[in-house]
Design goal:
Number of strands: 8
Helix content: 55-70%
Largest sheet: 5 strands, antiparallel
Number of helices: 15
Distance between the termini: 13 Å
Structural class: alpha+beta
Number of domains: 2
Shape: elongated
């Protein structure tokens, strides 16, 4: 019975029927049909059961149509890069799932034409974002990036690094006093070479045959052991302590301490400027949508309710 109702609705509904409208922008039924063609079959099926998500997606499509309306109203569609968008869309391969237009009872030619228009709207949406981004005042963005860098300079500071060596011993083979005895031996001849030699003799770490127990340089955040804080507070040389983790004992040596360094703006300039420009673009883009938001959103509630049944053909 549901399938029959869905088929009847497919026939009764017109592709140009407006579901949602705000000022001069509107979401036609064809956009929702096109969206169903665009998403994978499994997502298509899930969405056909989720009326709340589908309604949310329809409202979301309004923004795409607001930008489409704005570009035409401002005459931007006749200017580069917007004027090339339609041709570029036509040059791209178009993938249409015949099961979609057949189940929705839409003629293939009409469905393809509507889908191309939908793709054009999406392309114009991203083209406007790119256009706004490219036209942002570079010098202004750099100044703002410098200001942000100064405010959050400590966040960009290069943290201290430590060159760490480690010996791992099984608790099944050594008790704590025996491990402490090894620590005392290492401290009596506290050299990197002595540590290497003992690591090769006793360490159960699988990497010891490749690195002689020399783990390399770490920031504290990257040294993922429960005793990291103690190791990074210790002086250079063998740490006078025994640590344990997962049924193993650990002896640690700090071979070297590389002090933290002040951050240079030049090292973060590109990243910060790009972020600032993106934020400026997003504000400009949102202001366009906000102009339309001053007007009431008109929802064709009866039609929106009907299309929930329309897409049951994908269940």
């Amino acid at each position: 019975m549901n399938l029959i109702i869905s088929l009847l609705l497919s026939i009764m509904l017109n592709q140009n029927d407006v579901l949602v409208q705000q000022s001069g922008a509107s979401v036609p039924l064809s956009d929702v049909d096109s969206y169903f063609n665009e998403i994978p079959p499994d997502v298509r099926s899930d969405l056909s059961f989720d009326n709340m998500q589908l309604e949310s997606n329809i409202i979301g499509m309004l923004n795409m149509n607001i930008i489409y309306d704005y570009i035409h109203n401002q005459g931007l569609i006749n200017q580069s890069p917007f004027s090339e968008v339609v041709d570029n869309v036509l040059k791209q391969p178009v993938i249409i799932d015949e099961t979609v237009y057949k189940r929705l009872q839409v003629p293939e030619d009409q469905f393809k034409a509507n889908y191309l228009k939908y793709l054009t709207k999406k392309a114009l949406y991203s083209t406007l974002q790119d256009h706004l981004y490219q036209n942002i005042d570079e010098a202004k963005a750099v100044r703002l990036a410098q200001d942000r860098f100064l405010v959050f300079k400590n966040q960009y500071r290069i943290p201290e690094k430590r060159d760490i060596a480690m010996i791992k011993l099984s608790m099944a083979d050594y008790n704590q006093s025996e491990v402490l005895s090894l620590v005392k031996q290492l401290m009596a001849d506290d050299s990197q070479q002595h540590f290497r030699e003992l690591a090769n003799k006793v360490s159960t770490d699988q990497t010891v045959k490749y690195n002689d127990g020399q783990l390399g340089q770490f920031h504290q955040a990257g040294f993922r052991y429960p005793f990291a804080e103690e190791v990074f507070a210790a002086d250079m040389g063998v740490v006078p302590a025994v640590y344990k983790k997962d049924q193993s004992w650990y002896i640690v040596r700090v071979n070297d301490i590389i002090p933290s360094q002040e951050a240079e703006f030049s090292a973060h300039k590109d990243e910060l400027v790009a972020k600032i420009k993106t934020e400026m673009m997003e504000r400009q883009f949102q202001s366009i949508i906000n102009e339309y938001a001053q007007h009431e959103i008109k929802i064709n509630k009866e039609l929106v309710d009907d299309i929930f049944s329309r897409y049951e053909v994908f269940q």
